[in-house]
Design a protein that fits this description.
By secondary structure, this protein is mainly α. The protein is 66% helix and 5% strand. A hairpin with a 3-residue loop joins strand 3 and strand 4. The longest helix is centred in the first third of the chain and has 24 residues. About 7% of the residues have low confidence.
Length: 297
């Protein structure tokens, strides 16, 4: 049974998109740390915290200097179930929108840069504003996922998302509500540093799309490393470049059909390029209707 599960996970990791891979990595780390907690909690309670903190950021600059990997590893470490659940749901919901519109290859750079700026915001605010007494540690993908949330809101503000009880709501209002919640909780919260990190990640998500629309791909360094790793994972077979997805205004995405007329496909590709550079709002009514009809075929 376990061998079959491992094989299924391996296949999904190799064939899935970057959102799938990021979720798998976060879940693997979460399960591994919790198993470690089970074995160490009774015998050596403090040892688990010491091991976990090796991968965490701290408001202590000496810790961050002696643990430079923590700038990356902290964004894959979670303690609580609800913490990782909401981060992975946000990563899936909003990451799907971003990946469909500007390409899956942008997902890892946004995630990494968002987590980095979120971590920097935490460390700088904690050391300069003095709202933390003693040594504190930061873990979690919240800064990284907030970058993806903001990126989705900037790219497609009028995208409709269906929420339980409320119904369909435009993406820009959902993103605004998430931002305001973080801002409001800066006052009186026991996790001020966490909310500062969220806002830092959100700022990076906005900046990434702004730079992309200006013709600057700041994600290229991460993409190069990403391509090297994927080439190793996928073996000697030549990687096939994924076809562009068609954005459906009803909230669905579909792969272009192989028999689609070349002129139609060319127009669809041009519209998708325009969305990635200037956002969905830049489309004319005719282009929006064309894209909607094309996605139904």
């Amino acid at each position: 049974m376990f061998q079959s599960i491992i094989q299924d996970v391996r296949n999904e990791f190799q064939k899935g998109n970057m959102i799938t891979r990021l979720i798998f990595i976060n879940l693997f780390v979460y399960i591994a740390l919790n198993l470690l907690y089970v074995f160490l909690h009774g015998a050596a309670p403090g040892l688990y915290d010491s091991i976990r903190n090796v991968f965490a950021l701290s408001n202590d600059w000496m810790h961050n200097l002696t643990h430079p990997w923590a700038w990356i590893t902290h964004m894959f470490v979670h303690d609580g179930f609800w913490h990782i659940l909401w981060n992975m749901l946000f990563l899936y919901w909003f990451g799907r929108i971003v990946g469909d519109l500007i390409g899956d290859h942008h997902m890892l750079p946004i995630y990494i840069y968002g987590g980095l700026l979120g971590g920097i915001a935490f460390v700088l605010s904690a050391t300069t504003l003095g709202y933390i007494s003693g040594t504190s540690y930061a873990i979690g993908a919240s800064g990284a996922t907030m970058a993806i949330v903001l990126a989705a809101g900037v790219i497609a503000p009028d995208y409709m998302m269906r929420l339980l009880i409320i119904g369909s709501v435009k993406l820009k209002y959902i993103v605004l509500a998430i931002l305001l919640l973080d801002i409001f909780r800066l006052a009186g919260s026991t996790n001020v540093g966490g909310h500062v990190a969220h806002l830092g990640g959100a700022a990076m998500g906005w900046f990434y799309i702004y730079a992309l629309r200006s013709g600057v791909e700041i994600g290229k360094p991460v993409m190069k490393v990403q391509n090297m790793v994927l080439a190793i994972l996928e073996g000697p077979q030549k990687r096939q470049k994924s076809k562009a997805r068609v954005f459906d205004m009803r909230g669905e995405t579909r792969q272009p059909k192989s028999g689609r007329d070349a002129d139609v496909q060319e127009t669809v590709d041009a519209i998708l390029d325009k969305i990635s550079q200037k956002g969905y709002d830049s489309l004319s009514e005719e282009e929006k209707e064309f894209l909607y009809q094309a996605s139904k075929k």
